[in-house]
Write a structure and sequence with these properties.
The complex is a heterodimer of chains A (about 190) and B (about 100). By secondary structure, chain A is an all-alpha fold. Helices cover about 70% and strands about 0% of the residues of chain A. Chain A has helices at about 5-60, 65-95, 105-115, 115-120, 145-150, 155-170, 175-185; one strand spanning about 175. In chain A, helix 1 (about 5-60) packs antiparallel against helix 2 (about 65-95) and helix 1 crosses helix 3 (about 105-115). In chain B, about 25% of the residues lie in helices and about 35% in strands. Chain B has 3 helices and 5 strands. The termini of chain B are far apart. The model of chain B is unreliable at about 95-100 (pLDDT under 50). Classes of the chains: A mainly alpha (about 190), B alpha+beta (about 100). Strand 1 (about 175) of chain A pairs antiparallel with strand 1 (about 5-10) of chain B.
């Protein structure tokens, strides 16, 4: 083998080594990003669990609704969204031969879900009249029932029949307390 | 509970039976608010919906995934004006997604 051929062989081997090292480094980066994606999804689930727990306490009357609590949960979602957006961008641009990191699609969907929390600075998670607001409760946007029934003809007949039966006094009525006792709840 | 009593027709009871626990808790809260201040949270359904004096109340329950469950409560005032007689309750849940496999 000539000297030139040996040099070319050595150079080629070095290139192969460099390519393998780069591939390994890219693989490690992808693994790191995949862990980051998983971590952001876990974090979201933690925040969502906290929100569900707070919401349940408010709905059940165990805790008074407080605008500060609401704002704190919204802030958590916003902070999560800022970090998650960076992770999602990096993971999307470092897709491996088997596609993007597992869980990236879910992460992007969750980012889209919380987008409204970022876009609307005055948003409230709980906004309905029965939770004992410390401020004046917002009025619900109540559309005429006729418009509702026109959009849901499959329900119109049974809804009207139920109303007519009540109007004629032909149905056996159950009080709220009786119903709850029968259902075995408070 | 002060305010109006709340009475359910069989259709309304059936609807309540089909609610999940969190939905039931929400609707009970809404009914409580409705019983205290019917005029604030309802409106006459109108002659094209119910002939006579049927009332309709709508409530929106936000869910943790950013969506919402919608409720429509239809009722009439009792003849002695002491109770809300709920004739029907409709619940509309968000569509179920099945694309969790990524």
């Amino acid at each position: 083998m000539s000297l030139d051929a040996r040099v070319v062989g050595i150079m080629a081997a070095r290139r192969v080594d460099e390519a393998r090292r780069a591939e390994k480094a890219a693989g490690r980066s992808r693994a790191t990003l995949a862990r980051a994606v998983r971590g952001m999804n876990d974090l979201f689930e933690g925040v969502a669990e906290g929100e569900a727990s707070w919401r349940r306490e408010v709905y059940q009357g165990d805790r008074a609704y407080d605008l500060d609590d609401d704002a704190a949960v919204v802030r958590l979602y916003r902070e999560w969204a800022v970090a998650a957006a960076d992770v999602a961008r990096s993971a999307a641009s470092h897709a491996g031969p088997n596609g993007p990191a597992r869980g990236l699609k879910r992460l992007k969907r969750r980012l889209a879900d919380v987008k409204r929390l970022i876009d609307d600075p005055a948003i409230r998670l709980i906004d309905f009249p029965s939770v004992g607001l410390k401020v004046d409760p917002a009025m619900l946007d109540v559309r005429p029932l006729s418009a509702f029934l026109a959009e849901r003809p499959e329900l119109a007949e049974s809804t009207r029949a139920a109303d007519e039966a009540v109007a004629r006094g032909e149905v056996e009525l159950t009080s709220l307390s009786e119903y709850l006792l029968a259902r075995g709840t408070r | 509970m002060s305010g109006y009593r709340v009475l359910f027709s069989p259709d309304a009871r059936t609807a309540l039976d089909g609610l999940r626990r969190d939905e039931l808790v929400f609707v009970l809260g809404h009914l409580q608010a409705l019983a205290l201040r019917p005029s604030a949270y309802s409106e006459p359904a109108g002659p094209t919906a119910f002939p006579g004096e049927g009332m309709s109340s709508k409530a929106v329950m936000p869910t943790s995934d950013g969506d919402a469950v919608y409720f429509v409560v239809n009722f009439r005032f009792s003849t002695d004006e002491t109770a809300l007689v709920v004739s029907s309750i409709h619940v509309f849940r968000p569509p179920v997604e099945d694309d969790d496999s990524d």
